[in-house]
Amino acid sequence: MAIRIDEVRLHHLRMELVHFFETSFGRTYTREIVLVEAVAGGVSGWGEVTCGEHPFYNEEWTESAWLLLKNYIVPPALGREFESAAMVGAASAGIKGHKMARGGFEAACWDLEARLKGVPLWKLIGGGARREIPCGVSIGIQDSVRQLLEKIRREVEAGYQRIKMKIKPGWDVDVIREVRREFPSILLMADANSAYRLSDIEHLRRLDEFGLMMIEQPLAHDEIIDHAELQRALATPICLDECIRSAHHAEQAIRLGACRIINIKLGRVGGFTEAIAVHGVAQRNGIPVWPGGMLESGVGRCHNIAMATLANFTLPGDISAIRIYWKRDIIDPWVEVTPRGTIEIRDDPGFGWPLDREQLAAVRVREETLRPR
């Protein structure tokens, strides 16, 4: 079934977090999110651009994504017929970087194709290896260790299978020691978001004593070679995040021994087509993967759920209950986690959860419709 993109609507949302979320990049209180609505034959597919409000995670931010979508990514696809959503990315292949903006549009087209075919998105992408996906939760840097321990206790009691805590210089070894003292047996990992340098190797080696599942992205976003040197010095597995923007990057990292685990973020790699390719590279090389999160709305979260049903997503990911992050979401019902620490997938067409149109309108601050010229 060919897809002809009749029009695309861009939605700029402003959504308040329940609690600030802090990483080594800084604190976030409110998310500025771009949703992409791709329309064909009166049917809409939805995608989310997962970049932050500032160009700190990568080169993208909300305003850059809006301009790229409006002026470069969407226009070449309008009015064209594509054999499938997997072909849409080629229309913007000449753009260097900006994969989150491109990926948001591509994800909308995958959702659109699934809805046109009347199948769930997870089935269209070749997923379905499991009916329930294992869930972890990501906890940002807190104002105090006590506050961190309280948050961890609450999520462990809620059933989450893995706890991820953000770290940075000055909030790492001593804090993790306190966490381990309080929770000696939980699955625990640390996410550095590129906060360290290779010269910190002896300091990072101290993390080996805590039995962490992994240390995520300790060094810079473009330092695959340095990560290989660091991994040789550590017993703890390194998981790469920001370094892996393509299947080729995954191949390079694995060949160099730069990681033992890979985090796949749908936006970071540019959408489902490349995410499936990264997943395949890792699977063929015996490297487990898990789905990362970017404080998405329900739309992006549901896309992550579909992706996590692919066979090699064997580790609990950053897909958690909506209540942890949002005062109110734009899907209804909300994504919930079972007492087993899992999310059950749904069989509805597309990403599977209904949009809350009233709430979508309430948090929308800008909208624009793009049509063929």
Provide key terms for this protein:
12 helices; 15 strands; Enolase-like, domain 1; TIM Barrel; alpha/beta; 373 residues; 7-stranded parallel sheet; 2 domains
Question: What would your notes on this structure say?
Answer:
The structure is a single chain. The protein is of the alpha/beta class and 373 residues long. It has 2 domains: 3-118 and 357-370, 2-Layer Sandwich (Enolase-like, domain 1), CATH 3.30.390; 123-344, TIM Barrel (Alpha-Beta Barrel). The protein has helices at residues 62-73, 99-117, 121-124, 145-157, 173-182, 201-205, 224-233, 247-256, 266-269, 272-284, 298-307, 357-363; strands at 3-4, 7-23, 26-40, 43-49, 81-82, 132-134, 136-139, 162-166, 188-191, 215-216, 238-240, 261-264, 289-291, 342-344, 364-370. Strands 7-8-9-10-11-12-13 form a 7-stranded parallel β-sheet. Strands 4-3-2-15 form a 4-stranded antiparallel β-sheet, sandwiched between helices. Strands 1-5 form a two-stranded antiparallel sheet. The radius of gyration is 20 Å and the shape is globular. The relative contact order is 0.17.
Please sum up the structure shown.
This protein is of the alpha/beta class.
Strand content: 15-25%
Distance between the termini: 24 Å
Provide mean pLDDT, rounded: 95
Total individual domains: 2
Largest pleated sheet: 7 strands, parallel
The percentage helix is: 25-40%
Model regions low in confidence, pLDDT < 50 over at least 5 residues: none
| Gross CATH architecture of the largest domain | Alpha-Beta Barrel
* Biggest β-sheet: strands ordered side by side in the sheet: 7-8-9-10-11-12-13
